[in-house]
Amino acid sequence: AIGGGYEFARVAAANLREKDDAWNPTIGGFVGGSIVGLRYRSFPAVLGFGALLAIIQGTFDYTGGKMTGFARDAEVDEYERMEQVRRNKRRPIEETLHELGEGRGIYGPGYQERRAERLKKRYGVDIPQPA
Questions:
Q1: Which of 37, 32, 28 is closest to 58 using CA atoms?
Q2: By CB count within 10 A, which of 19, 36, 68, 112 is most buried?
Q3: What is the pTM of this model?
Q4: From CA 78, how far away is CA 57, in angstroms rounded?
Q5: Which of 63, 15, 11 shows the shortest CA–CA distance to 32?
Q6: How high is the pLDDT of residue 71?
């Protein structure tokens, strides 16, 4: 029940707030801790356990989800690192077209000409070519 309450509150907070930050685990931690406090049938226990777990979960997430904090290299520029990641994951357009086909905003070279020919053949409509 504790884990389910924590996860539900964390995900619901993220969806309602439309943000992914340290407040979501804090809210989830409060709900989870409150469930632990219900065992003692005391309102101060519910609030106390809720606050304790909220602080622990919020701090844990805020520090990067590790006991030692973020493991960033101070010498590496974050923008350059993300550009390198993006370049490494980029695929050639030919491979994308082969797997997905044309359409949905993905068009290969010569698409306009092929489209004009297809429309002329099917419907007899001339499509003017862009200059």
A1: 28
A2: 36
A3: 0.51
A4: 26
A5: 11
A6: 66
